[in-house]
Design goal:
single chain, about 180 residues, alpha/beta, Rossmann fold, five-stranded parallel beta sheet, about 40% helix, binds flavin mononucleotide
Amino acid sequence: MPLKVAVLVGSLRANSLNRKAAELLVRTGPKVLGLEVVEIGDLPLYNEDLEENAPREWQEFRERIKASDAILFVTPEYNRSVPAALKNAVDVGSRPYGANVWNGKPGGVISVSPGAIGGFGANHHLRQMFVSTCWSCSNLKPIWAAQANFLIKVAGWQMRGPANFSLVSSRLMPSG
Ligand SMILES: Cc1cc2nc3c(=O)[nH]c(=O)nc-3n(C[C@H](O)[C@H](O)[C@H](O)COP(=O)(O)O)c2cc1C
């Protein structure tokens, strides 16, 4: 029985390098991981006032995360942090108080950037968020992909595949 790994992509744009990386992993990554993208672009902005009658999108998202065995974030860096859409998804999943759906899930972070440091700031901030939201207290494993435009153009990602995939699997497995 494969694991169920929810893949959250931090970029909403159609031609996103991060989405390409995520989709490549979903398509050709180890079947045992059961990777599946969970969309975050339609989640209403978090507002605690809405909890009494929580938006359907929040409820569905929380159920999808609850049903997952592990989480894989694939995100760009925006102004040395994570894009607002991804922060919103983290906030939605962390509430209402006492019902944090991230708790206890192993996870990994891949940050992809055309820049030289591979989205280090986003990667680091995301892991910092999970120190305070107490993600199995907080064991998010980082992977950085720098100069992604260059890698895609010259190497075409596929050539990077096997090395990246084994790293991803080893980091998402319960014993990893
Ligand atoms: C609002 C905004 C802020 C950005 N800030 C950074 C940054 O801090 N560091 C960085 O390496 N790239 C930054 N970039 C460039 C992104 O890395 C680049 O646009 C990347 O392709 C976005 O990821 P995507 O291709 O998955 O959409 C920024 C882009 C935007 C739109």
